[in-house]
Amino acid sequence: MAVWDDLVGQERVQEQLAAAARDADALVTAESAGEQAPAASRMTHAWLFTGPPGSGRSTAARAFAAALQCTSPDRALGGAPGCGFCDGCHTSLVGTHSDVEVVRTDLLSIGVKETRDLVRRAQLSPAVGRWQVIVLEDADRLTEGAGNVLLKAVEEPAPRTVWLLCAPSLEDVLPTIRSRCRHLSLRTPSVEAVADTLIRRDGIEPDAARSAARATQGHIGRARRLATDEASRARRATVLKLPLRVEDIGGCLRAAQELIDAAAEDARQVSEEIDVRETEDLRAALGAAAGGRMPRGTAGAMKELEDKQKRRRTRTQRDSLDLALTDLTGFYRDVLALQLGSRVALANEDVREALDRVARGSSPEGTLRRMEAVLACREALDTNVAPLLAVEAMAMALRTG
Ligand SMILES: [Zn+2]
Predict the structure, then answer these.
(1) 37 Cα–ligand 1 center, Å
(2) Of the candidates 358, 388, 393, which has an alpha carbon nearest to the alpha carbon of residue 373?
(3) How far is the centre of ligand 1, averaged over its atoms, from the C-alpha of 83 (Å)?
(4) Helices and strands in the chain: count of H runs, count of E runs
(5) Higher confidence at residue 348 or residue 298?
(6) Contact 16, 7 (CB under 8 A)
């Protein structure tokens, strides 16, 4: 079934979604024929997709959105909706279907104003499709006020409106919201499943695919980047050298600064292009002649855009730092496996020499303590501690000398 093709290793979730799409289809068909809707249905108006980063939460939500909009006549022959080829499926998957709204934010939180706009949209009937689908990719970023606005819409949805919320875990979503959603939990796909997808779908050479899948431990998006992007391989190499460089205080501070700089550079690369285009668009919209002075009264709008861009850079930088810390945790997990003589496959086999050195020079207890330090750093970053301070504290705790 084509719309599900990009979901990796999520058979159970896929079955549930396909069944719901089938029932949703029966509902629409019955209603348009003026018949009573079937009593028992696996379809519902609010769904919550949770799973670790890279497990494919938003991929699953988009696939479901596409299946709901599928217009393929094959369904009449008993096939389930979600062919992947018809106009409904295709436009939903590429993001141009007018009844599928995908909300992805670069900001750290989603506020009341944005949520009101969404709720207003959710009250409309579908324009061309069968359902009005709203995919909220970062439901964990709803502020409490925004959650209350959303709550009413989720409780009393328009008859053809479907909310698809995504978040890392149930705990990340306001209890009032999550209790009104049907919950689907995605799991981290196996290394084999990820490698297989990279080979089959992205045409990546088998050895490179397997090594990238192993290094990223089941994160399909990162695995693909690692296998195809030189800069991301270089960044990972820098991070994995860190455990050997924290011998003295000076080394710790330098390593911390480098980690922060790499994250900032990453954020700069990602943001720069978008920022320039956004700023130009806004200037044009506000009526500035090319190279001329901006009209009176537009400074506020320009300032608002600058603030938004600054928040986005902060978030991108934080995400990049978080990825680096994930790699670091993986490194120490491998060290621990070596120290305990465990036979599990190492994620970072490619830096085996460094793993061996750190394993020989420390105890399992020390390694556990270092893994805790990395975790503490991630938690500190979550609570808005200045990144450099958090990373310096971590580097000191990783010290070997
Ligand atoms: Zn279709």
Answers:
(1) 22
(2) 393
(3) 4
(4) 15, 5
(5) 348
(6) no
Distance 41 CA to ligand 1 centre (A): 21
- CA–centroid distance, residue 84 to ligand 1 (Å): 5
**Which region among 105-114, 246-255, 332-341, 358-367 has the lowest average model confidence (pLDDT)?**
105-114
- Looking at residue 169, its amino acid is S
| pTM summary value | 0.72
How many angstroms separate the alpha carbon of residue 4 from the centre of ligand 1?
11
Q: DSSP string spanning 320-363?
A: HHHHHHHHHHHHHHHHHHHHTT--SPPTTGGGHHHHHHHHHTS-
Averaged pLDDT of the chain: 88
Cα-to-centroid distance, 195 and ligand 1 (Å) = 27
Compute the distance from residue 89 Cα to the ligand 1 centre, in Å. Answer: 4
d(CA 399, CA 335): 15
Cβ < 5 A residues, ion ligand 1: 70, 72, 83, 86, 89
**Residue 164 and residue 102: Cα distance in Å, rounded?**
9
**What would the pLDDT profile of 122-162 be if each residue is shown by its tens digit?**
988 898 889 999 999 999 999 999 999 999 899 888 889 99
pLDDT digits (tens, 9 = 90+) for 277-303: 888 878 887 776 656 677 777 888 888
CA 68 / ligand 1 centre spacing (Å): 9
Look at residues 57, 80, 71, 77 and name the one whose alpha carbon lies nearest to residue 6: 57
Distance, CA 162 to ligand 1 centroid (Å)? 18
Residues whose CB falls within 8 Å of the CB of residue 312, separated by 6 or more in sequence, listed in order: 106, 107, 271, 274
